[in-house]
Design brief:
389 residues, mainly alpha, globular, 8 strands, three-stranded antiparallel β-sheet
């Protein structure tokens, strides 16, 4: 979970902060060029081509240089033998409590059962494993909980940055505000992993859930404050203390975000059946990513429907058109007008999502925590049947 968190932080930094900075003509002219130009150093297409090439090269190197065993060993389940030797059954691997090297007792794998060699499963076999995983009742309960848990923070996560840009904060400056937080984002998984390494990582998840919901109020205030700073925001110029407040809020928010993220990764690592660990964890991580993305798509779809704008003349301020569908309406610009927000749908969505978040907490919070009390065997796939000789 720590490697996953740190890796995603580095990827986000390169794909978002670095790209927006290098794509900005203002940033490049100010910090990287001697002669000003009207464009940035990179464009979206060149950036994607470059990293696509890097992906192909690194993947090809892994394919060429990394060798894998053609077969692996499957140990048949021997519950009775485990019980007789005072051991425990962990997904078909027999174990026994033996003295460790430092004088303490530790669980050590023992080969109680006969081993059989099996071909590495192909693509169809992997999908059959996925279907078997999805048939587990515990997995179905967990998927339902996790797919709904991010609704409460969807507006805060998906729309806050866009609203700050809409109200005048330059997108490259907003991206650069994340730079001071990067060291924190790298350290947080390492610190949090100390608390998620035990048998109950979801407790950390739930402890961070309510603070993350309440950050919706903080972000609502931040958007309101950004809009109310006056005519200066139209030029993208804000006082220095404004950026300091944004960095502070963002840093505190990341503590809650990473607490939930690292706890989720630790939980997936804990319950995944070691016999199909890669398939199991990939499925759970995919569902977790889906749980984060689908609510954001929904709130982005509805925010303009809930927002009412009017087109006002730039010169006199007179009302030109009572309907301005988007913040950058071409029709309003053609009439030498500007779109003025009368009713901000962002606030309505924020309140609605927060209410749904607390509803989720009431109905699903205890259910999610109760999953930690189940034995690891209840998350395992049925043991493979032995082949007849």
């Amino acid at each position: 979970s720590t490697c996953n968190s740190v890796g995603q932080t580095a990827g986000y930094f390169l794909g978002n902060v670095v790209f927006l900075a290098l794509e900005s003509a203002d940033f490049c002219n100010k910090y990287l060029r001697y002669q000003p130009q009207s464009y940035g150093i990179v464009t979206l297409d060149t950036f994607l081509v470059f990293w696509g090439f890097v992906f192909l090269v690194t993947t090809s190197l892994v394919w060429a240089l990394k060798s894998e065993k053609k077969e692996y060993l499957v140990m048949r389940r021997q519950s009775t033998d485990n019980e007789e030797h005072g051991g425990k059954d962990d997904g078909g691997v027999a174990t026994r409590l033996l003295p460790g090297g430092n004088g303490e007792q530790e669980w050590t794998t023992e080969e109680y059962a006969p081993l059989e060699e099996t071909e590495v499963p192909g693509i169809l076999a992997a999908y059959r494993q996925l279907i078997c995983i999805l048939k587990l009742h515990n997995i179905q309960v967990y998927i339902l909980c996790i797919l709904l848990c991010k609704i409460g923070s969807a507006t805060a996560d998906a729309l806050t940055g866009l609203k700050l840009i809409e109200y005048g904060v330059a997108k490259e400056k907003l991206a650069l505000l994340g730079v001071p937080v990067v060291p924190l984002q790298i350290l947080l998984p390492i610190i949090i992993s100390k608390y998620t390494a035990g048998p109950r990582p979801l407790s950390v998840f739930m402890n961070a859930y309510v603070p993350r919901l309440l950050f919706g109020l903080v972000f609502s205030w931040l958007v309101w404050w950004t809009r109310s700073l006056g005519p200066q925001h139209g030029t993208g110029i804000f006082p220095g203390y404004y950026y300091g407040v944004v960095v502070l809020i963002y840093a505190l928010h990341q503590v809650a975000v990473f607490s939930m993220f690292v706890a989720t990764m630790a939980w997936h690592s804990r319950i995944s059946d070691p016999r199909v660990g890669g398939t199991y964890m990939t499925l759970l991580n995919t569902i977790s990513n889906l749980a984060h993305n689908w609510p954001g798509m929904v709130v982005m779809w509805f925010v303009d429907m809930l927002t009412k704008r009017e087109c006002h003349s730039k010169a006199s301020g007179a009302l030109l058109d009572p309907a301005c569908p988007t913040a950058n309406s071409e029709a309003c610009k053609a009439a030498n007008g500007t779109c003025v927000v009368v009713t901000e749908g962002y606030y309505y969505e924020m309140v609605f999502c927060m209410v749904l978040g607390f509803v989720w907490l009431y109905y699903f919070g205890k259910k999610l925590l109760s999953l930690q009390e189940l034995s690891l065997d209840s998350w395992r796939l049925p043991a493979p049947t032995s082949r007849s000789s």
